[in-house]
Q: What sequence folds into this?
């Protein structure tokens, strides 16, 4: 039978060769030089929409059509689940006082019903396997009373942080910043941990599909492969007065992706609110213009919206105007009183004026933008109304398929407080999913009191209480 | 502070226990009058008791154990009214409810801080019903309540230090049958088989700046059947030692023990 074996080996070699050729060709450069493309198509969309009073201003400063997206090798770490046990039910760690003979330690361990044990050298700690039926708690309690024992503790479980397998996740420094050279335009160097700690939060909560985040913006591309399954319905178009909030401008789709793009689908990006769903309300037209009336109407509509058990828990407003308005405040109050957390961008004029609705401090979280080094973005508005900051510089997210240039995947990088606010909206949705009985005020306080302080110590007008920390907001605090 | 519901529930149980031991006491009094050896004069014992308490409990969908250590002073009236042995006790004790997760507070708190000190109060009663050979048989009931003192903690890592307060309490009521063997000179071994329920609440509060939260977790005992084995050991004319072991066969964690030393006046 040597002949067929030889032939099998040959086939195998050919297969390996073919795979190598395929992989090597895949690692080659894309069709176009990405930086040149970025430079060429960079456009400012904040511009002049605030010329007229009581007009809404988009709060992102520029968008860049996405780089030609490479194929990444992905490993699905998320399938390795944390089983919930904090420590091993069979093993403990024990350290005896120095000077105890090995004979004494052996007899002591035998007395505590050790099935087997081994010593970790240098630090002289025993890893002790207990007999079946012997509980860790009782053994530790007995060991702690033994005067020869220096330390006795459980063998705590390790687990991986919930890391999604989305292709572009490595470009989402905002969710998990590894530091070093970042895979974003300009390849800047980022500060490790200058992120919202989304992976740490996902270990505890991934959100509820019946928790809706209303995105009041330019609509949303509900055909987008990373959004199609996350949109509860086609929403409401307040510009054209119909039930089709399709995004013909791009801003809303980008914002929506940050909040709740389909996560762990081996495609595109991850959304902060992993399992939550989106409800689009179109209040900006194809050129990105809109009025307070549209926002007011959309606020009331979103607050009243239900679809089976699903209802709106969070409203994101990545837009604003310079003028206060009583009716707008009333609409905000209406939604707030229904338990809805309202999140808005502070604005991109680099000035001491926080836009409305963000400036309505009683009802709305005002969000400033930070970057990959935990510095406040140069364009971010500031003032006493700023509550928190979130990453808003070179944020990758979804972009309408119809507006994407041929040869590119429908994702772009964009900067602005528009990109910062949806990170906060996503966190609000995670908290509300886990704790539906909390009031909007409570959730706002949890978000405000749990950040990492990144500017002057304590609250300041640039970052508010600091850059949000999703893990701290949702993970259990251990009382000991 | 106990919640109104918890207090009401506790009062009901107390009344239930009182009725249980009063009603059969009255009923059996007549019957027992005929048996001369039951008609001994009433006497009182005073003693100290040390308990190691460990019982399986449940909260939400979690199974764990309630561990405690109590030191109580007890007064035991023997043959009161010619029929009933009544024990009243009070003291201090620790309860450990590690692992309880308060996940509906604004900031989730995981209690891993070990024992909380509290007051323990209770009463127990035995009613002999009949005698078969050297065995005395009867009814037994007891009620124990533990009221924890509030334990405070500092919550760090947030924009300013916050505060958490842990305040558990629980109660246990048991009722069933006992059998005492009176064939030995100075030792009376006994066996109790009781139906035993445990319930309680663990109240946790938190405050960070103006963010306040309160969550009450309900605790329920697992394993309703309790079996106690012990003996009354007469050390001298006036001095008694009473070791008892109690287990809850249906509960993974349930094994308790107590040792009391009492003096007969």
A:
């Amino acid at each position: 039978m040597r002949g067929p074996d030889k032939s099998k080996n040959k086939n195998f070699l050919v297969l390996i060769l073919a795979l190598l050729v395929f992989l090597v060709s895949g690692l080659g450069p894309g069709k176009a030089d990405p930086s040149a493309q970025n430079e060429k198509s960079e456009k400012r969309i904040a511009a002049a929409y605030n010329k007229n009073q009581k007009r809404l201003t988009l709060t992102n400063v520029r968008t860049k059509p996405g780089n030609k997206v490479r194929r990444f090798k992905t490993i699905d770490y998320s399938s390795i689940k944390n089983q919930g046990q904090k420590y091993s039910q069979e093993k403990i760690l024990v350290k005896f006082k120095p000077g105890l003979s090995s004979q004494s330690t052996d007899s002591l361990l035998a007395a505590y019903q050790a099935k087997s044990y081994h010593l970790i050298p240098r630090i002289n700690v025993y890893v002790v396997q207990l007999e079946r039926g012997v509980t860790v708690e009782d053994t530790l309690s007995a060991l702690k009373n033994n005067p020869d024992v220096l330390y006795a503790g459980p063998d705590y479980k390790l687990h991986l942080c919930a890391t999604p397998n989305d292709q572009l996740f490595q470009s989402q420094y905002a969710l998990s910043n590894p530091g070093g050279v970042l895979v974003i335009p300009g390849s800047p160097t980022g500060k490790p941990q200058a992120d919202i700690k989304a992976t740490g939060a996902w270990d505890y909560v991934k959100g509820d599909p019946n928790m809706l985040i209303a995105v009041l913006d330019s609509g949303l591309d509900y055909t987008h492969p990373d959004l199609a399954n996350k949109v509860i319905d086609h929403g409401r178009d307040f510009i054209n007065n119909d039930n089709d909030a399709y995004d013909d401008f791009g801003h809303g789709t980008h914002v929506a992706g940050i909040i709740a793009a389909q996560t762990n689908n081996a495609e595109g990006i991850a959304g902060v609110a992993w399992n939550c769903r989106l409800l689009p309300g179109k209040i900006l037209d194809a050129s990105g213009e809109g009025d307070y009336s549209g926002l007011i109407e959309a606020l009331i509509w979103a607050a009243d919206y239900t679809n089976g058990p699903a209802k709106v828990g969070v409203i994101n407003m990545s837009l604003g105007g310079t003028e206060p308005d009583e009716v707008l405040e009333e609409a905000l109050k209406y939604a707030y009183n229904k338990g809805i957390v309202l999140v808005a961008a502070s604005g991109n004029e680099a000035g001491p004026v926080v836009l409305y609705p963000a400036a309505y401090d009683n009802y709305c979280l005002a969000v400033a933008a930070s970057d990959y080094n935990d510095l406040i973005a140069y364009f971010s508005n500031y003032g006493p109304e700023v509550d928190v900051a979130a990453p808003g510089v070179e944020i990758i997210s979804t972009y309408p398929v119809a507006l994407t240039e041929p040869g590119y995947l429908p994702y772009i990088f964009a900067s602005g407080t528009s990109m910062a606010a949806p990170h906060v909206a996503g966190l609000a949705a995670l908290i509300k999913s886990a704790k539906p009985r909390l009031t909007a005020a409570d959730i706002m306080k949890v978000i405000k009191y749990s950040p990492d302080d990144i500017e002057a110590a304590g609250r300041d007008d640039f970052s508010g209480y600091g850059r949000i920390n999703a893990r701290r907001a949702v993970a259990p605090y251990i009382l000991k | 502070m106990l919640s109104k519901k918890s207090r009401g529930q506790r009062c009901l149980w107390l009344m239930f226990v009182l009725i249980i031991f009063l009603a059969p006491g009255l009923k059996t009094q007549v019957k027992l009058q005929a048996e001369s050896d039951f008609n001994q004069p009433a006497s009182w014992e005073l003693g100290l008791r040390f308990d190691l308490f460990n019982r399986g409990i449940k909260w939400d969908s979690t199974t764990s154990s309630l561990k405690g250590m109590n030191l109580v002073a007890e007064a035991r009236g023997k043959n009161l009214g010619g029929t009933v042995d009544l024990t009243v006790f009070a003291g201090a004790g620790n309860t450990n409810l590690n692992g309880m997760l308060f996940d509906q507070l604004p900031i989730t708190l995981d209690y891993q801080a070990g024992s909380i000190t509290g007051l323990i109060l209770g009463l127990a009663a035995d009613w002999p019903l009949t005698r078969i050979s050297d065995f005395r048989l009867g009814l037994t009931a007891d009620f124990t309540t533990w009221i924890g003192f509030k334990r405070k903690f500092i919550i760090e890592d947030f924009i300013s230090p916050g505060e958490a307060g842990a305040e558990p309490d629980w109660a246990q009521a048991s009722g069933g049958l006992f059998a005492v063997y009176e064939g030995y000179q100075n030792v009376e071994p006994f066996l109790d088989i009781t139906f035993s329920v445990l319930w309680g609440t663990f109240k946790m509060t938190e405050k960070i700046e103006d963010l306040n939260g309160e969550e009450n977790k309900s605790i329920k005992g697992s394993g309703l059947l309790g079996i106690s084995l012990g003996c009354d050991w007469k050390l001298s004319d006036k001095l008694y030692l009473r070791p008892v072991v109690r287990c809850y066969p249906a509960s993974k964690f349930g094994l308790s023990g107590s040792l009391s030393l009492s003096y007969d006046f």
In short: The helical segments of chain B are 4-33. Chain B has one domain: 4-264.
